[in-house]
Amino acid sequence: MARIHNLVELLKQAPDEVFVQPHNVHDPDAIASSFALQQLLAALGVEAVIVYEDDIEKANSLSMLSAFGIDMRLASSVHTLGAEDWTVLVDVQKENSNVTNLVTDEVACIDHHQYNGPKGYRFEDVRPGIGSCSAIIAEYYQEAAVEPSSNVATALLYGILMDTFTKVRAGAYVEERGEARIEA
Q: How confident is the model over 71-81, as pLDDT tens digits?
């Protein structure tokens, strides 16, 4: 069974609300993957609200919210957040310094950073070999055979590009300077 279907089946058992929480730095990959996951979950029958902590200060992140109509809510303004609610952590893992531990139960984690060990999630998809969390969520759309909206697709592409741009530039830099050629 596809990963996304496992996540959906889990979240349908939530005793109360479902939230999606990115890390506190709010970069394009974290925002895009949270937004795309929220929209995919909705298409598959699970309503979720994106919550965050700390101010969103990056100009490109603020532009994304406006351009794509992304509704992210400051966790402290969501008065229904409680211990019976479930949260999916996106682009971050429990106990990282860049995530606020909310009063909810963090039941799932989707991340592309180095694995920090088991944290008791009921669903976990941590793949450090993937360049961005947006790429993982894009794969979920393929697995579910759900066509992303234009806004979701563009946000995912932007998230992928922003998180992998440094790697692409670094690769181009060393390729220009490399003398050895690999023969197939």
A: 999 998 998 89
Measured CA to CA in angstroms, residue 160 lies from 18, 40, 89, 168, 171 at distances of 25, 17, 18, 11, 16
Q: Which residues, at least 6 apart from 52, have a Cβ–Cβ distance to it below 8 Å?
A: 21, 22, 24, 26, 72, 73, 74, 75
List Cβ neighbours of 147 (8 Å cut-off, separation of 6 or more): 141
pLDDT of residue 1: 61
Residue 182 has pLDDT above 50, yes or no: no
Phi, psi of 111 (to 5 degrees): -155, 155
Report the distance separating Cα 49 and Cα 87, nearest Å: 9
Cα distances from 122 to residues 10, 36, 160, in angstroms, run: 8, 21, 26
What CA–CA distance (Å, rounded) separates 125 from 115?
Answer: 10
156: its two tokens? 């995912």
Does the global pTM surpass 0.85? Answer: yes
Q: Report all structural domains of the chain as residue ranges with CATH numbers, in order of start.
A: 3-177 (3.90.1640.10)
Q: Output the six-digit token pair for 116.
A: 């920090």
